């Protein structure tokens, strides 16, 4: 199975975790695109979605799924999203699709976060994938300097403006031994909107798509 087939398969498998009739939070990216398509094959499975990006909103509307505003929600039971990397503690690097801040906001209020990913995303140590940081444009050089002091190689992502009008710095060559401490540290730099480390609010369940089926990992 290639990576797209693995993504499609986990996107179908997560349908079993949805309580019919709810409004659920939805992430961003190609795995989530397959998930939105899968949702559209089951009529009225969900009442609607809270979307984490303009692109997911576009696909949700295209497939006839109503999109609601997070500010109108009293609570949210479920958030479904993928990741760029996930470790066995269910901590993640996210933001390859530049939607990290909105994803983090929705994940922070959802009672349950299910991460759907193909097996290439499962790692022992986070940091092979460049760590995205969303920043306010005027803070670019001062945040770059602070990030350099942490040991990696930060670079501004070219030709990308986030849905919030900000820019992304990706930190290369940056193995993360203590994700919670690093998330707190990078969050503390003025000008940082959010860092794509999901270690403080990690996933509750990961469904990992492999050639031999879907593996479920739950947080301990
Ligand atoms: O964090 C994300 C977007 O900001 C995505 O979850 C992550 O980039 C994985 O994407 P894909 O499903 O395309 O591999």
TrEMBL record:
UniProt entry keywords in alphabetical sequence: Isomerase
One cellular component (GO) term of this entry: cytosol
Listed InterPro entries: NagB/RpiA_transferase-like, Ribose5P_isomerase_typA_subgr, Ribose5P_isomerase_type_A
Active site feature: 103
Keyword Isomerase: yes
Gene3D superfamilies on file: 3.30.70.260, 3.40.50.1360
Name of a matching Pfam family: Rib_5-P_isom_A
Oligomeric and partner information: Homodimer.
Functional summary from the UniProt entry: Catalyzes the reversible conversion of ribose-5-phosphate to ribulose 5-phosphate.
Protein name: Ribose-5-phosphate isomerase A
Annotated source species: Buchnera aphidicola subsp. Schlechtendalia chinensis
Gene it is expressed from: rpiA
């Amino acid at each position: 199975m290639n990576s797209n087939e693995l993504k499609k398969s986990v996107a179908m498998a997560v349908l079993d975790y949805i309580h019919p009739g709810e409004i659920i939070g939805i992430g961003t990216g190609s795995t989530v695109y397959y998930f939105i398509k899968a949702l559209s094959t089951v009529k009225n499975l969900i009442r609607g979605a809270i979307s984490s990006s303009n692109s997911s909103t576009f696909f949700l509307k295209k497939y006839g799924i109503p999109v609601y505003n997070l500010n109108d929600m009293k609570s949210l039971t479920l958030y479904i999203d993928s990741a760029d990397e996930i470790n066995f503690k269910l901590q993640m690097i996210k933001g390859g699709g530049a939607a990290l801040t909105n994803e983090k906001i929705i994940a922070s209020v959802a009672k349950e976060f299910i991460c759907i990913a193909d097996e290439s995303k499962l790692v022992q140590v986070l940091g092979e994938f460049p760590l995205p940081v969303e920043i306010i444009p005027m803070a670019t050089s001062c945040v770059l300097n602070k990030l350099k002091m942490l040991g990696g190689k930060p670079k501004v992502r070219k030709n990308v403006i986030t849905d919030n009008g900000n820019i992304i710095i990706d930190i290369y060559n940056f193995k993360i031994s203590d994700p919670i401490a690093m998330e707190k540290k990078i969050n503390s730099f003025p000008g940082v909107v959010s860092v794509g480390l999901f270690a403080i609010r990690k996933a509750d369940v990961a469904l990992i798509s492999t050639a031999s089926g879907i593996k479920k990992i739950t947080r301990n």
